[in-house]
Design brief:
single chain, about 425 residues, alpha+beta, Gamma Fibrinogen, Chain A, domain 1, 2 domains, seven-stranded antiparallel beta sheet, two-stranded antiparallel ribbon, elongated, disordered N terminus, Fibrinogen-like_C
Length: about 425
């Protein structure tokens, strides 16, 4: 224990001497720090020695020197650390100094750049001033040009109005020319139409002349064909009998002629001739002209289309009662038209108009059905006729000598029961 105290005391004294020996060599800025450390060390050393010193009046000088040396040794170690820190700081200061030099160089370069930019700005200001002067000059020129443009626009508007007036005048003249051209075109068309009408009329005149020549020839032919019948139209010189007619289109044929001028085209009087025949028989005609017969559809077509004819139908009963039906314009069509009953004219008589229903109907036979109904009326009624669906009259139907059918219905003529027919033609 005593040895430790001696060492401690010596360390204190050593540190004290060191601090006095080296205190003059410390930098000014480090003296307060070292002084503080020394004071702390003394305080520490003497804080532990004070109680001892109170009890021990004297210690060996060697122990005090050792303690002194120990303190100085600690202070030296601290000084070494401080020197290391100073070196580090000096190095940092050198680096910062270098950085400051670089910064100064950069600042100088930036100052030079700023100076250059200032000179460039001055040059640009000069250019801007020059451009401003140019712009001002251009503005003045623009103002002048706008004034000139305004003057030219006013002149142009005046020219436009003038052109507009001239255009309207031109349009009016064009409309007038167009109207004149249209009138001329209409006049040309009218002239062309008149020429066409004249040509048509001329052609019609030619056709009429041709038709007149044909009609004159037909009249001459008819006059020749009916030369033998002239006496029939004059009862006082034409007795009733059979006469021969020479029709150019169909050749000569015999026909009965009545004293009052009527030509007989069909007769039924005793049932001796059957009228249930095929198409060809009705076309050519059949029977004996002195008894029951039918003249033939082709002859009727030629006769009724050459000149107008009347039709007279005489009907009689077995008791001797007679009635008649007469039509003032009788005409039939050609074979291509199936000998259609084309015209009857006006009706007069006492038998009743039972033929009007059959107008515009085609002729039918049992082997040539032309009637519009679903049944073959000619086959059903035993004779050819201008059937509808089927008939109001059928003068070529089955003949009943007592004037009635088995069902008490009149088949020959529906106009009056028990009548038989005799057809005259003039």
């Amino acid at each position: 224990m005593k040895s430790e105290l001696i060492v401690f005391i010596l360390s204190v004294f050593v540190l004290k001497d060191l601090s006095q020996a080296q205190g003059a060599n410390y930098p000014q800025n480090l003296q307060p720090t070292n002084q503080n450390l020394e004071n702390k060390c003394r305080d520490y050393c003497f804080s532990g020695l004070k109680p001892i010193s109170d009890n021990v009046d004297t210690f060996d000088e060697l122990k005090g020197s050792i303690k002194d040396l120990q303190c100085k040794l600690a202070m030296a170690e601290n000084q070494i650390k401080i020197n290391d820190l100073i070196n580090i700081k000096d190095k940092e200061i050198s680096e910062k100094t270098e950085q400051l030099k670089c910064t100064d160089n950069l600042m100088k370069q930036k100052d030079q750049i700023i100076e250059d930019q200032r000179e460039e700005i001055l040059k640009k200001d000069e250019k801007i001033n020059a451009m401003t002067a140019i712009i001002h000059n251009c503005h003045n020129q623009l103002v002048y040009a706008e004034g000139q443009i305004k003057i030219k626009e006013e002149l142009l508007n005046f020219k436009v109005e003038e052109i507009k007036v001239k255009t309207e005048n031109l349009k009016s003249k064009e409309d007038l020319i167009e109207s004149i051209n249209k009138q001329r075109t209409d006049q040309v068309k009218q002239i062309e139409n008149k020429v066409n009408e004249i040509n048509i009329i001329s052609n019609q005149v030619k056709d009429l002349k041709s038709e007149i020549l044909i009609k004159e020839q037909q009249i001459k032919t008819v006059q020749e064909e009916f030369a033998e019948l002239v006496k029939c139209n004059q009862p006082e010189t034409c007795p009733s009998g059979i006469y021969k007619i020479n029709k150019h289109e169909i050749g000569p044929f015999e026909i009965p002629c009545k004293l009052d001028g009527w030509m007989v085209i069909q007769r039924r009087q005793d049932g001796s001739e059957t009228f249930a025949r095929h198409w060809q028989d009705y076309k050519d005609g059949f029977g004996e002209v002195g008894g029951e017969f039918f003249i033939g559809l082709q002859k009727l077509y030629q006769l009724t289309n050459a000149v107008p004819h009347e039709l007279h139908i005489k009907l009689g009963t077995v008791e001797g009662v007679y009635r008649y039906a007469q039509y003032d314009d009788f005409k039939i069509g050609s074979e291509q038209e199936f000998y259609e009953l084309k015209a009857l004219g006006n009706y007069s008589g006492s038998a009743g108009d039972s033929l009007i229903r059959h107008k515009n109907k085609k002729f039918s036979t049992f082997d040539r059905k032309n009637n519009p109904s679903s049944v073959n009326c000619a086959e059903q009624n035993n004779g050819g006729w201008w059937f509808d669906g089927c008939f109001d009259s059928a003068l070529n139907g089955k003949y009943h000598k007592n004037g009635k059918s088995e069902s008490q219905e009149v088949l020959l003529v529906l106009l009056e029961p028990g009548l038989y027919d005799l057809v005259y033609f003039c």
